[in-house]
């Protein structure tokens, strides 16, 4: 419910009391900053006072109130927009056979973000690996494996974000990138699928990190 706003229209006051208005603006701005920092009042309620009536008042929990961070290295295949994501405690689950019989599914499912690799299964292994998936990081070579079961990955698991990485020759967007073309077809068939590709710049950054950490050239 938007609250009525006790704000005097600016144009009426401005000519008479310039300095008071200026001071009020500074005070209002400071107030906004303090509110953001303390998180004691819901920010969308204040936005209503500035005319954004479409913002609904929702009693956020702490995790929902976190602002999403923008990650410019990952671009949505359908919208061409960068990835927005903010994680607290992450569970990064390997797709190694060693995960079997670990019985850590409940613990994994309690994490705010759960990362999985390629097409690593959860169905039938929930007790060991958990059932929630926030993100799947998928190699270009594993995209055909996901496409063997597209109804599961891109319809049933439509809350999962897919981040695909691969070399430029496969990921180019000019019609000659074999993997990019597959992904493009997939978002046409599954409009709710959240599929992102890694930019060339981000790929070279990751390659550099890999080399630094392992001493090996991935290329
Ligand atoms: C998204 O996933 C849910 C849960 O699996 C499913 O019920 C729903 O139909 C899916 N939505 C679309 C648009 O595929």
Automatic annotation (TrEMBL):
Location(s), subcellular: Golgi apparatus membrane
Membrane topology: Single-pass type II membrane protein
A GO CC term attached to the entry: Golgi membrane
Known catalytic reactions: a ganglioside GM1b (d18:1(4E)) + CMP-N-acetyl-beta-neuraminate = a ganglioside GD1alpha (d18:1(4E)) + CMP + H(+)
GO MF entries: alpha-N-acetylgalactosaminide alpha-2,6-sialyltransferase activity
GO biological process: ganglioside biosynthetic process; oligosaccharide metabolic process
Keywords: Disulfide bond, Glycoprotein, Glycosyltransferase, Golgi apparatus, Lipid metabolism, Membrane, Sialic acid, Signal-anchor, Transferase, Transmembrane, Transmembrane helix
Annotated transmembrane regions: 20-38
Pfam families tied to this protein: Glyco_transf_29
UniProt keyword Oxidoreductase present: no
Stretches assigned to coiled coil: none
First-listed, main subcellular location of the protein, grouped into a coarse class: Golgi
PANTHER family, sorted: ALPHA-N-ACETYL-NEURAMINYL-2,3-BETA-GALACTOSYL-1, 3-N-ACETYL-GALACTOSAMINIDE ALPHA-2,6-SIALYLTRANSFERASE-LIKE, ALPHA-N-ACETYLGALACTOSAMINIDE ALPHA-2,6-SIALYLTRANSFERASE 3
Family: Belongs to the glycosyltransferase 29 family.
Protein name in UniProt: Alpha-N-acetylgalactosaminide alpha-2,6-sialyltransferase 3 isoform X3
Gene field: ST6GALNAC3
